[in-house]
Design goal:
Largest sheet of chain B: 7 strands, mixed
Strand content of chain A: 15-25%
Mean pLDDT of chain A: 93
Shape of chain A: rod-shaped
Order of helices and strands of chain A: HHHHHEEHHEEHEEHEEEHEHHH
Strand order of the largest sheet of chain A: 1-5-6-10-9-8-7
Largest sheet of chain A: 7 strands, mixed
Number of strands of chain A: 10
Shape of chain B: elongated
Number of strands of chain B: 38
Strand content of chain B: 25-35%
Low-confidence stretches of chain B: none
Number of helices of chain A: 13
Largest interface: A-B, 91 and 89 residues
Radius of gyration of chain A: 43 Å
Oligomer: heterodimer
Number of helices of chain B: 21
Low-confidence stretches of chain A: none
């Protein structure tokens, strides 16, 4: 009997190994392990054997049954794996078909530059101040020590607005009015940067726009020196442009600062690039804002934001900044 | 301001060095070098030659054949495109093999069949001047002993020179002259500086006393600080000597005639503008200086009649007729001419603000007025300039009478100024001694004495020179110290404020707005804020944009009151470039007309979102995202027809009870006006008010541990009842048990009455303390149905 059973087990294993699907497996399971299977019948017949024989035979039957059970499980695993393989194969995707489907918008290049400048100055202890774009002659000129007759007024190429007396209201020609508004409303110490839109009667061409963007800094505190100005600009230049870029100050003239300077940054070829203007806040400007120039001293500096974006991204036409062509906007 | 090294050396002979280093020194003084040109550096191979013969080219009209003798006695034929020379002229001739300054190598070749064995050169080709027109004829320029074949440089005694074009700032009237630049540069280099003497030997005319010929009165001393004049006799108007003409050309001025040229030469050299009258046109030599009476007129040298104002300074004759617009332009009637024999020479000091106002009003910028408006020297330099003029005129046989008329008005106070050395060091961050400061100041002609103050500190008594009108205060003096000390020698330090840096809440939230919109796939745009007249009307808006006074172009002549026109233009632009469905946003200022009693416009920061090719619901979806991320409290859409928007697809956005903007779709008529293919979903918010307003507090709400139950309810709702109203009824009925509500289907059409739609809601109920029983859910469901259907016309859909 046992010998027959062993043969059955061999047959079962062979047929299980060839079972093609779970249905066939179920049938084989019934055939070899079900109630009518040889193994079950053999177990039932054990009772008719004498104790010694029963023990030996029982052990053998159990072993054979376990052997078949193992074969069934392994066949089941094999088929499940095949089914999973089939499923996965049917779900195959070429992920490269799905690149660039979701589209996030883009921040404007000027915003990106402005944010970065703000972040650098915030890190240096500055807050960010803003003001109106349409200004009075007081804020745009007079409080800044540029009286009505001053030749410097002409150099601003101001766009005037048809309000009030002639040349009394204008689109601000620099962000400096924010300095005045800040000093009028806030007692020193003052550490601000004022980014924003500025306007001049420049015909739009590859390097000019009538509406452009500047950022200006103002520090008013006790004992502020021109050394502080040079050091602050140097720290900014290193942080913003990288450690290898140097800065220098050259004497210049602005009615609202004294001494005044232009500041340059070094280029890779050793030449210098003029970036902006700066200087020690003119005592008249402090007085105009009710600040005693013998108690407080300050410095101010300013430069163009657009130009930094133009330099960084090698734009050859600054008008792209206001054309709003998506083919441009989406590059950044 | 253009200055040549050779001219600077007439005042400071020891100025020397590498041109690039000298440029650096000038820039470090604040005399920024905009351009530097090396001149007179004639290339090897260009020799002195003589024109032997001129004849037409047999087969070309625009060139002729020239035979030249380049020193070997042979006639060399060259083809030449210039026709300004004559047989016998001496010219510069580039022999074959010469490499010209522009890199061109001269070779013997044939032009239209004729041999050309070299090149006749223009001044520009040699880098000697900017004359490209003709060949440089050297007849009067060769030095004694020059021979044909000699290097041209040697033949004309040309010395290499450097020409700088300097940017001179408004506070440096002194640097508007060669002498002033030389004074600064000499100080920086530590070399001597001095003026020439400019005296002339007495002449026959010196027997006459100027006071018998001229009588000048200053009627308004605030206008004219000083008026110096004399008379020149024996004037003939001819051409200037070559050296003077060359220098004027280098300085960028065209030589005209001997008197004008001397006038310009003195102005360039010493900074003193001057004016010449034909003495014969000034009866009795009497001049008066006053301000104009409004409405008075003068025909100026340029032939234009100018109407004058009470600001303008004028010079009148004895009949009180205006003969000159002081410091700005002379009058036509007293101009010198070829018949002039006697000249009244005037040098004055005019009040800079006065000149500035006149120049600006009449838009009459000239070399003279641009000096007067910065403030010329009212001191010894006037006398010096008079002497220099007379000296140069004497070389032409013109003689001056004895003495000057010299009348004074008001000039700036130049009393000694007390300067605290501690204040200067405190401003600059330096540790200079008073003596060092005095050294810097005296090197540029300031009077500077060290004085010991009460506390023993060494301070300065400073006398500011008369050539520095703009320099008045201790701070101005500090700048001079800094300039001469060198900005690069100031030790750099970094100040640290007591307060931390940071963005304001508003600025941080504005950045968040940008991020939300970028997350929505919107590209940020940045149109300029100018509109064309009519743009607002075209956009369906009130035509109340504030106009500009001096717009560049009509298309940019009005300030925007809304972001709508700019966005529509941007969409139209992109659609015309085959990019139809753009999603744009913009944050920018709009400018509403000033409220009563205010000067400046009501300026606001707006946010606009424009979704081309999309309908109103998409704009609402963007608003919802902003509401969530910004924590906007109680956002309500109030039905409205805002101007420019689609009358039945738009609403006002109400935040915490206040109108903050509009949402919906742009009016199809407006889209048509702007050539935009619609639809365009639109959202415009007053960002300033929105971000400054109240914010929803995000307080923790516990998450229930008990199961929830969902029910679906669909209602037939007439169009006049909003979904917001239905939702509000549902919330009211379900009260605290309602945890989620979603409008999952809106249906119009078959099976429903006209003007009615079906709104289907999924409601989720849940309690915090128990599992809701079926009975409870049924009760709340019924309550919802009862409340909603109590609205007129609303019924439950079966």
């Amino acid at each position: 009997m046992i010998e027959t059973l062993r043969q059955t087990a061999v047959e079962a294993k062979a047929r299980l190994a060839e079972a093609g699907d779970l249905d066939a497996l179920a049938e084989l399971d019934v055939e070899f392990l079900g109630k009518k299977s040889a193994v079950t019948l053999a177990k039932r017949q054990l009772g008719s054997l004498d104790p010694d024989e029963r023990r030996t035979a029982g052990q053998a039957v159990n072993e054979i049954r376990a052997e078949i059970e193992t074969a069934v499980e392994s066949a089941r695993d094999r088929l499940a794996q095949a089914a999973r393989d089939l499923q996965l194969a049917s779900e195959r995707l070429d992920l490269t078909e799905f690149r660039n489907q979701a589209r996030r918008g883009s921040l404007h290049l000027v915003t990106q530059s402005r944010d970065r400048l703000e972040d650098v100055f915030v890190g240096m202890g500055f807050t960010v101040a803003e003001g109106p774009e349409v200004e009075s002659a007081w804020y745009n000129f007079e409080a800044l020590n540029i009286p009505e007759w001053h030749p410097a007024r002409g150099s601003f190429d101001t766009i005037f607005v048809d309000l009030g007396e002639p040349e009394e209201v204008m689109l601000r020609s620099h962000t400096s009015p924010v300095q005045i508004r800040t000093m009028e409303n806030q007692k020193p110490p003052i550490y601000i940067v004022a980014p924003g839109r500025t306007f001049r009667t420049d015909t739009a061409d590859a390097t000019h726009l009538p509406a452009f963007n500047q950022i200006e800094g103002l520090v008013v505190d006790r004992g502020i020196t021109m050394g502080d100005l040079a050091g602050t600009i140097d720290e900014f230049v290193h942080t913003f442009f990288g450690g290898g870029v140097e800065s220098r100050l050259r004497p210049s003239y602005f009615p609202f600062t004294e001494p005044s300077a232009e500041f340059d940054i070094s280029r890779a070829d050793g030449s210098w690039l003029e970036l902006g203007g700066c200087g020690m806040v003119h005592p008249n400007v402090l007085r105009n804002c009710g600040i005693d120039p013998d108690e407080w001293q300050g410095f101010a500096f300013g430069f163009g934001i657009d130009r930094l974006a133009v330099m960084r991204h090698e734009l050859d036409d600054i008008r792209e900044l206001v054309n709003n062509d998506v083919r441009f906007l989406r590059q950044f | 301001m253009k200055v040549a090294l050779s001219w600077l050396r007439e005042f400071a002979p020891d100025i020397d060095g590498d041109p690039v280093e000298l440029s650096e020194a000038l820039s470090a003084l604040g005399l920024t070098v905009e351009d530097m040109t090396l001149i007179g550096d004639i290339v090897d191979g260009v020799v002195l030659a003589k024109v032997l013969d001129l004849r037409p080219h047999p087969s070309a009209d625009k060139i002729q054949l020239v035979d030249v003798d380049a020193g070997d006695g042979q006639a060399r034929q060259v083809c030449c495109g210039a026709f300004n020379m004559a047989v016998g002229d001496l010219i510069p001739f580039a022999t074959p093999g010469t490499v010209m300054p522009d890199g061109l190598k001269i070779q013997q070749r044939k032009m239209r069949g004729e041999v050309s064995a070299g090149m006749c050169c223009s001044g520009a080709e040699l880098g000697l001047n900017d004359d490209h027109e003709g060949i440089l004829v050297l007849n009067d320029r060769v030095v004694p002993g020059a021979e044909l074949g000699m290097d041209v440089a040697a033949a004309i005694g040309a010395e290499p020179d450097v020409l700088w074009d300097l940017e001179v700032n408004a506070n440096r009237p002194d640097a508007m002259s060669v002498a002033g630049v030389a004074r600064d540069l000499a100080a920086a280099l530590g070399v001597d500086f001095s003026f020439g003497d400019y005296r002339v030997a007495d002449s026959s005319a010196a027997d006459e006393d100027v006071n018998e010929l001229l009588n000048v009165e200053i009627l308004d001393p605030t206008l004219c600080g000083r008026f110096v004049a004399t008379v020149l006799r024996g004037v003939t108007v001819g051409t200037s000597p070559q050296w003077m003409a060359d220098r004027l050309r280098l300085a960028g001025m065209r030589p005209l005639n001997s008197i004008v040229d001397i006038s310009n030469y003195v102005m360039l050299e010493l900074g003193q503008p001057n004016h010449t009258f034909d003495l014969a046109t000034i009866p009795n030599g009497r001049l008066r200086v006053r301000r104009a009476v409004p409405g008075e007129k003068l025909t100026t040298l340029d032939g234009l009649e100018r109407e004058l104002t009470a600001n303008d300074g004028v010079i009148t004759n004895e009949s009180d007729e205006i003969v000159s617009l002081a410091g700005v332009m002379g009058g036509a009637t007293t101009e010198i001419s070829e018949h002039t024999t006697d000249v009244l020479l005037e040098m004055a000091w005019w009040d800079p603000p006065t000149i500035s106002r006149t120049v600006k009003r009449l838009n009459l910028v000239s070399e003279a007025s641009s000096r007067f408006r910065r403030g010329v020297d009212w001191g010894e330099n006037v006398d010096r300039s008079m002497r220099r003029f007379i000296q140069l005129a004497a070389e032409l046989g013109i003689t001056a009478v004895r003495g000057f008329v010299d009348v004074a008005g008001d000039t700036p106070d130049r009393a000694s100024l007390a300067v605290r050395s501690a204040k200067i060091n405190g401003l600059l961050g330096t540790e200079l001694s008073a003596a060092e400061m005095a050294g810097y100041l005296s090197s540029i002609g300031f009077g500077a004495d060290v004085v010991v103050a009460d506390g023993g500190a060494e301070d300065l008594a400073v006398t500011i020179p008369t050539w520095r009108w703009d320099t008045e205060t201790e701070t101005d003096v500090a700048e001079e110290v800094a300039r001469l000390h060198g900005y690069e020698n100031i030790v750099r330090t970094v100040p640290r404020g007591e307060l931390p840096g940071g963005l304001t809440d508003y600025q941080a939230r504005r950045r968040l707005v940008r991020q939300v919109l970028v997350g929505c796939g919107c590209d940020e745009t940045f149109p300029m804020p100018f509109l064309a007249p009519g743009d607002l009307l075209k956009a369906g808006l009130v035509d109340n944009g504030v106009p500009l006074s001096n717009p560049l172009v009509a298309e940019q002549s009005v300030l925007r009151t809304s972001l709508l026109p700019g966005q529509l233009k941007a969409i139209a632009y992109n659609q015309s470039h085959r990019n139809a469905d753009v999603r744009f946003f913009e944050i920018g200022h709009v400018y509403l007309p000033p409220p009563t009693d205010q000067l400046l416009p009501d300026e606001r920061e707006h946010l606009a979102v424009a979704l081309a090719g999309e309908e109103a619901p998409q704009a609402v979806a963007v608003l919802d995202l902003l509401e969530r991320d910004l924590g906007l409290p109680n956002v309500v859409l109030r039905s409205a027809s805002p101007p420019g928007l689609h009358a039945t697809r738009s609403a006002e956005v109400i935040v915490a009870g206040s109108a903050r903007g509009v949402v919906g779709e742009v009016d199809p008529v407006v889209l048509e006006n702007y050539g935009v293919a619609g639809p365009v979903a639109w959202l415009e918010l007053n960002l300033g008010e929105l971000l400054s307003g109240p914010r929803r507090r995000r307080k923790y709400s516990p998450v229930s541990k008990y199961p929830s139950s969902d029910i679906d309810l669909a209602f037939e709702v007439p169009d006049e009842v909003t979904a917001a109203a239905v939702e509000s009824s549902l919330r009211k009925a379900a009260q605290a048990l309602l945890t989620e509500i979603k409008l999952f289907d809106v249906y119009r059409g078959e099976g429903l009455p006209a003007d009615t739609r079906s709104l289907a809601y999924r409601l989720r109920f849940q309690a915090h303390d128990r599992t809701l029983t079926d009975v409870e859910v049924a009760d709340v469901r019924q309550a919802c149905i009862d409340v909603v259907t109590s609205r007129p016309g609303v019924s439950l859909r079966a």
